[in-house]
Amino acid sequence: MFPPVAGGSACAVKVPRLQAALDAVLPGARLEVTPLPGCPDLSLALLNADFPQEQLPPDSVQRAMDNPLYWVFCWASGQVLANHVLAYPEQVAGRRVLDFGCGSGVVAIAAARAGAAEVVACDNDPLALAASRCNAALNGVELTLADDFDAVAGDLDLILVADVLYDRGNLPWLRRFAQRAPRVLLADSRVKDFDYPPYRQVGRYASCTVPDLDEAAEFRDVRLYLCA
Questions:
Q1: Are 91 and 195 part of one and the same domain?
Q2: Which distant-in-sequence residues (6+ apart) come within 8 Å of 73 by Cβ?
Q3: Which candidate, 78, 98, 114, 212, has a CA 20 to 30 Å from the CA of 121?
Q4: Which of 53-67, 102-116, 192-206 has the lowest mean pLDDT?
């Protein structure tokens, strides 16, 4: 389904459903299989790094804002959490794990590569689930896909969460995660006044979104929190 990635460089990939969705929002953009600088063993089908070639007209900017394609990026916090999972595979090995708001699927894929017994990639965006399925195949792993957190049956050993607190309205989810699983790992670069016991900071890393959005330094400063 996917071409190999050679020499650590991006290469074009054709996934008709995802490319059609991208064309509808950003005509002229394409998906490229891109190695991740923060997780060199993983590659994802992401927005081509050289898009756009010129400034987007206002209507295109508005269309992108009205139809956010979160799955065409690997966000900074997602890279940090995926790298953490790969660096400490004992935290997921043999466990049932859920990646909440999976987007491109990068964290779920890292958990599968680290030996999780099952990884549930959960997102309410059907395109994100399609992207996660394609990216899982690209990286040689399988994921269970879910579009409703409350509909996931059975016990969970660990919930992984990255890049969901861009909207502070999502903060109540922190309690729900803690109630659902004995351990939660959360990566975030948005909430700098984070104070939500029993979550505690266990790491701090510099990262960036891929392709690079030239974000402000504050959004490249990723904190890792554990609830256990």
A1: yes
A2: 46, 47, 103, 104, 209, 210, 211, 213
A3: 212
A4: 53-67
Which has the closest alpha carbon to 135: 80, 192, 93, 78?
78
Confidence of residue 6 (pLDDT cuts 50, 70, 90): very low
Q: Which of 19, 49, 72 is the last residue of a domain?
A: 72
Does residue 2 form part of some domain?
no
Rounded distance between C-alpha atoms, residue 77 and residue 163, angstroms: 6
CATH number where 191 lies: 3.40.50.150
Answer yes or no: do 60 and 94 share one domain: no
Longest dimension (CA), the chain: 49
Count Cβ atoms below 10 Å from residue 188 Cβ, excluding itself: 23
